[in-house]
Amino acid sequence: MSLAKLKEIIDESDNIVFFGGAGVSTESNIPDFRSSTGLYSNKGKSRYSPEEMLSHSFFMGHTKEFYDFYRSNMIYPDAKPNDAHISLAKLESIGKLKAVITQNIDGLHQMAGSKEVLELHGSVHRNFCMSCHKSYPLDVILNSEGIPRCLECNGIIKPDVVLYEESLDPYILEKSIDYISKAETLIVGGTSLTVYPAAGLIQYFRGKHLVLINRTPTPYDRQAEIVINDSIGETLKKVV
Question: What's the distance, CA 63 to chain centroid?
Fold first, then answer.
């Protein structure tokens, strides 16, 4: 029943916005953060927690240790788009989906063909020198050892990702709010909706249809017209 209703909503709507989290990329074999098998449940041998190692202060004070963790746990260069990414790109190509707003940093939406992608937490594919601001692609990070250094000024290269203690990009945030507030249909997928400020974006939705697709319940389930606790890739593939 839920799938049939979701297909009907998608067929009839031409102003859809998708808001997604780590669960969108788990089907591309990128681990999430907070599930029982997620990154934060695996403390490993380090005396620091993953949350500590992904903070701005840790990056500044323990840059080499940050990069050791970052290269091993945050970058998945062989990952490929899954059915969720591909379905959303298809919806955009036929004019129904206006934007993808994502908490992910893996670039898989763009790889699948999505054009209007708002990356709340940045991207591993963008990196910059903290001194002269020269830009660098992901390959430079992957092919370096220790702390990656700028080829022009020897400054430290930093990934363009939002670390703990850092603020979201105000332009991306404002644009995301604008898309959500004007959407007729908001599909939320692969996110527990517990991490703020990103989770708070859903409060700006004033449209007709709120759809939640997540393997586990969220705090917003009661507000949604449709709640599907299943694979987001398989769900979208069946209705797009």
Answer: 24
- Measured in residues, the chain has a length of 240
pLDDT at 36: 46
Q: Which of 121, 125, 133, 209 is catalytic?
A: 121
CA pair distance 2, 15, nearest whole angstrom: 20
Q: What mean pLDDT is predicted for residues 31-57?
A: 71
pTM of the shown model = 0.93
Q: For the segment 141-199, what is each residue's pLDDT rounded down to a tens digit?
A: 999 999 999 999 999 999 999 999 999 999 999 999 999 999 999 999 999 888 777 78
Cis amide prior to 170 (ω within 30 degrees): no
Contact 164, 56 (CB under 8 A): yes
**Which DSSP helix (H) or strand (E) runs through 93?**
helix 83-93
CATH for 1-30+80-121+167-240?
Answer: 3.40.50.1220
CA 85 to mean position of chain CA atoms: 11
Is residue 121 among the annotated active site residues? yes
CA distances from 173 to 37, 97, 120, 153 (A): 29, 18, 7, 32
Tens digit of pLDDT for each residue in 49-77? 889 999 999 999 999 999 999 999 999 99
Residue labelled with tokens 């389930």: 221
Q: At what angle do helices 2-12 and 232-239 cross, to 10 degrees?
A: 60
What's 199's DSSP letter? G
3-state secondary structure of 24: helix
